[in-house]
Amino acid sequence: MVYDPETGGWLLFFTGWRNANSREVFFAEVEKDMTVSRVRRILSSPPTRDAVNAIYDPWRDGFIVLTTEGGPLLIRCFDKGLRELGSRKLLDGMQDSGAGVLSLMGNYSEQNPNAAIFYPKGDRVLWRLVKRVDDLSSLELGEETVFSNWEGSNDVIDAFRTNDRFGVLVEYFTDRQNWRSRIAMCGNYLAPNVRGLSASLPVHFNDGYSNFGHPSFATGPDGKPKVLFSFFMSHAPPFPVLDYSRQWRHEIWVWEPGFNIFDTRVYGRMFDKLVFDGKTTRNPPFYDLLGARKVMLGVSCPSRRTLTVRVQQAVSMKEHLEGNFVEEVFRVVRGSWRTLEDPLGTLRVTVGKGSTVWLVAEY
């Protein structure tokens, strides 16, 4: 769902099945009672339009739309009347998952990014900052970095930014039968090498007949925080698909949680996994601990029995990035855990190349 500040209205961008192998992109206006009107198709198939994400475009008073289309990720600009003004391919080799997009407002210049995109690849959620998202011919993608590493198959994704949090809601495959949804979030300081902490969304639906995923956060049209989900029957049914409306059905549901999904105490514990390849070893990421009262670090390396771990802590992300931190170095036995009681606001962990660190933050 996208807010249009010029009209005060809320708009829904979504995909619909043309057949079992092809999707198309639709648009609708959302009324205050959550009914929809003026449904219209804005991108037909072929090619398949696997997933769609959108933001309001303040530079043109229109909309910026991202679609994954059977491999490539495309960015499209639409005017107020949903007429396409231009498009550009951003990336190849994408999953059929879409890419969450945030517009970054404030101290905008030619040098500063004015957008960020998030997209899944296997067990990771990756992200890039974007310069000149307002001009397709001048657009530049920043370096690809990991935002979250948790669970196995991450899939359909959307990005959010609130006053004190930013991150993603993402669908993931928990086992051979279940699609579920999780949150990965960081604090209010958006910088290229920060990472999010993850937990499953505590959605209290009876899913006896379906799985649920494709999560997306919104506050419109009535100002109440809500999460949109796609509930679907068997994603790959073992029986012949004869009636798509019954056997391949996706339904868009709206969940209004009775709690703040951005409050870490809702989850109790949040997680991430750090794999130290050459890039991560040279420049480890920063974590906003989001008020954690305890952090547990599990360390492993197949080639060494003991490992040297370097831990930095700071009171805030800004202070940490400016070099104002305290540092502790200790040795651990491979496969052991180390607990940090009452940590400061942010954390950075360094271990040797080839190591893995499991980070658990407790609230």
Overview of this protein structure:
The chain has 2 domains: 2-265, 5 Propeller (Tachylectin-2, Chain A); 268-362, Jelly Rolls (Sandwich), CATH 2.60.120. The protein is built from 3 helices and 29 strands. The chain has helices at 244-247, 278-282, 317-321; strands at 2-4, 9-19, 22-30, 36-43, 51-57, 62-68, 73-78, 84-91, 100-103, 115-121, 124-131, 140-141, 145-149, 153-161, 166-173, 179-186, 194-195, 197-200, 211-218, 226-232, 250-255, 269-275, 286-288, 294-300, 306-314, 326-333, 337-341, 346-350, 356-362. The strands form 7 sheets. Strands 9, 10, 11, 12 and 13 form a 5-stranded antiparallel sheet that branches. A 5-stranded mixed sheet has the order 17-23-28-25-26. Strands 1-2-3-4 form a 4-stranded antiparallel sheet, with no helix packed on it. The model has no long low-confidence stretch (mean pLDDT 91).
Short description, anyone?
This protein has 363 residues and is mainly β. It has helices at 244-247, 278-282, 317-321, and strands spanning 2-4, 9-19, 22-30, 36-43, 51-57, 62-68, 73-78, 84-91, 100-103, 115-121, 124-131, 140-141, 145-149, 153-161, 166-173, 179-186, 194-195, 197-200, 211-218, 226-232, 250-255, 269-275, 286-288, 294-300, 306-314, 326-333, 337-341, 346-350, 356-362.
Q: Please tell me the CATH architecture of the largest domain by its name.
A: 5 Propeller
What is the helical fraction, as a range of percent?
under 10%
CATH top level class name of the largest domain: Mainly Beta
CATH topology of the largest domain: Tachylectin-2, Chain A
